[in-house]
Write a structure and sequence with these properties.
Largest interface: A-B, 26 and 29 residues
Order of helices and strands of chain B: EEEEEEEEEEEEE
Oligomer: heterodimer
Distance between the termini of chain A: 38 Å
Structural class of chain B: mainly beta
Radius of gyration of chain B: 13 Å
Helix content of chain A: under 10%
Strand content of chain B: over 45%
Largest sheet of chain B: 7 strands, mixed
Structural class of chain A: mainly beta
Number of helices of chain A: 0
Distance between the termini of chain B: 36 Å
Shape of chain A: globular
Number of strands of chain A: 11
Chain lengths: 111, 115
């Protein structure tokens, strides 16, 4: 079983839709949770960073962590064509020497 | 401030050839990492370093070696390339804070094709 599971998609939505991206994990030691956005042929760039459980909002993006269910989500409101990319979740325990990534969900926002 | 840079951007090797990928960061980060990214597999950690002169194995270290002689540089070596090492390689760096590292900053990647 992989440490982090993520639906690869692709997910196709119309412009303006609310997008929900999710990851599940198996290691209860994970405390740090991140979402990265990766455009085609580019390196991942950090979108959201959350410690432990709860919600965090940044503009059109909201990250949620439910440690009891081992489930994290990223919501994108008013999605734009420029949001079309692959979204990777990542997690780490307190030692932070290693990060564990999901395989990524490819999102396409249609104009 | 260039962030994390990688050299080269693209390389074609024949089976059995060797090469070194160079990663450089100008953010004074302590921790550096090498990942490979393959379709459907996500990012997998090859080796990492928590400081100058130290390295450790990650999830998929076989066939690779690394060195961290200077804090700002992290080298990934392939001694005898194999077709299975065809991939996109990403370097990342992060800094420790309060006993834990903050999140990672990634380079633009190196595309490697082994024939």
């Amino acid at each position: 079983q992989k440490e982090v599971e993520q639906d690869p998609g692709p997910l196709s939505v119309p412009e303006g839709a609310i997008v929900s991206l999710n990851c599940t994990y198996s290691n209860s030691a994970f405390q740090y949770f991140m979402w990265y956005r990766q455009y085609s042929r580019k390196g991942p760039e950090l979108l959201m960073y959350t410690y432990s459980s709860g919600n965090k909002e940044d503009g059109r993006f909201t990250a949620q962590v439910d440690k009891s269910s081992k489930y994290i989500s990223l919501f994108i409101r008013d999605s734009q064509p420029s949001d079309s990319a692959t979204y990777l979740c990542a997690m780490s325990a307190s030692d932070f020497n290693k990060f564990y990534f999901g395989s990524g969900t490819k999102l396409n926002v249609k104009p | 401030n260039a962030g994390v840079t990688q050299t080269p951007k693209f390389r074609v090797l024949k089976t059995g050839q060797s090469m070194t990928l160079l990663c450089a960061q100008d953010m004074n980060h302590e921790y550096m990492y090498w990942y490979r990214q393959d379709p459907g597999m996500g990012l997998r950690l090859i080796h990492y370093s928590v400081g100058e002169g130290t390295t450790a194995k990650g999830e998929v270290p076989d066939g690779y070696n690394v060195s961290r002689l200077k804090k700002q540089n992290f080298l990934l070596g392939l001694e005898s390339a194999a077709p299975s090492q065809t991939s996109v390689y990403f370097c990342a760096s992060s800094r420790p804070s309060g006993g834990a590292a903050e999140t990672q900053y990634f380079g633009p990647g190196t595309r490697l094709l082994v024939l």
